[in-house]
Amino acid sequence: MSSKGKKRVVLPTRPAPPTVEQILEDVRGAPPNDPVFTALTPEGRSKPDCSQGPGTISARLEQLYQQSRAYVAMNERLQQAGDTLRQKFEDLRQADERLEQDVSRVTSATS
């Protein structure tokens, strides 16, 4: 196709991002079952249960925090274990090479 047949497409300009006030107004006007508010709640519950008081919520948040810390610690231990395994594998590979050299020297000396 020749360049005469191609038409240049002019894209519309991007709209301006919303202001903080517009965002807050949108959040305040959203219904309680909006996915933004329910995405992180356990299944079967549309919103966090505040009826048992702030102590229960803070206990749940503390539990989640401790789970997150345990996950990060376990991930670090697994990475260290992987590094250790790689080093031990390399050590075994080198030992195998030395053993094969020693075996070949012994067999050539006895022949």
UniProtKB/TrEMBL annotation:
Pfam families referenced in this protein's UniProt entry, alphabetically: UPF0449
Domain of life: Eukaryota
Entry-linked InterPro entries: UPF0449 (IPR028227)
Similarity comment: family membership: Belongs to the UPF0449 family.
PANTHER family given in the database record: UPF0449 PROTEIN C19ORF25
Protein name: Uncharacterized protein
Biological source species: Myodes glareolus (Bank vole)
The organism's taxonomic lineage, starting at the top: Eukaryota, Metazoa, Chordata, Craniata, Vertebrata
